[in-house]
Amino acid sequence: MNLAAIDIGSNSIKLVVVQAETSDSFTVLAQEREVVRLGQETLVNGHINNAATLRATTCLKRFRSIAEMHGAEKIVAIATASVREANNSGEFISAVEKETGLRVEVLSGLEEARLIGLAASQGCTEKGVTSLNIDIGGGSTEISIFRDGEPLKLISMKLGAVGLTDRFIRSDPPALNELDALRSEIQSSLVRSASELRAHSWNYTTATSGTALAIGAALNHTALGVASTVTLGDLKILNARIAALSLAERRKVAGLTPQRADIIVAGGLILEGVMSALGIESLRICDWSLREGVIIDRLREWEQSQ
Asked: Residue 16 is part of which domain span?
């Protein structure tokens, strides 16, 4: 069967269309990503404005057409932090269904962590290995520990690259007091979660999301989506370098797309904060994330119903 998943995130909306026989084996037919910034202002004000809704529905119409063109028999649309936190999420969901015909499912933070962790454990981790995955989104950060396709611990925190940029970064380049306040917010938000996670053990660490992919590409001089390793030491050096650059200068850094240059400072510091708090010296970048997790999960449900 052909199945499509659309991830309506706080920074971008992403599509994947696959041809699948089982949850363990599928072929990607199409992938698309568009920066929509649904979380810009929304994560601070708690309200999705009309302009953001229009950007989202325009993108979703195009993605539905692509999915249907590739023979998708079912399209699953899920939304994360921006819609989850908005006081008008119901109005947004209704507008999307009216304009595109897509029914949007809003994920809880823990369900988001589960689906992302499922993708990372199946797509980027050897069988029998206990793995921890870090996913830094625009509006939240999800951390999961998985073994043999099953979750051992799930965490969701309101730490996102778009939301923290809107709250803390005002200067160009960021002022030292802004960076200090940003680091302090990250550290204080991690205290409880880090303690819970350290009660578990794992022997492999991955990181997913656009922020992680961009950091991996910038550090390893590879194309986006190419597997790479990130060490904490190298990440600290990169974060210090990009925080000292203006936005225009960051847009020229190899590996950073122009659309991500304004939120990469916050995103990079979140990843640094998580790695430091959990004692992670290195991790592997994984290009599977929420979309693939939704696909795997729905295919498992389909298999069980047969």
From this structure: 2-106
